[in-house]
Predict the structure.
Amino acid sequence: MLNAISTKLSQEVLAALREFDQADAIGAIVIIGNARAFAAGADIEEMAEKTFNDLYSADNFAEWDKVRTISKPIVAAIGEYALGGG
């Protein structure tokens, strides 16, 4: 099973990035997926029952904006295609 980008996953990734950012022994952060996929995309199951207004006002992807507060370099290691949609 692939990890979809849910609100919970976003919060957990940001928490880990903040922890790594504070660790003196860490000079850079590398985020990788696995051989099958880097990410499965948005969590459609989490979004399915919500209206446009619900999703817009909740701003489910706002957590990702906070990644800019991390001072250490972050590298995303993607081994295949990098596709996006929205």
About this structure: The chain has one domain: 7-77.
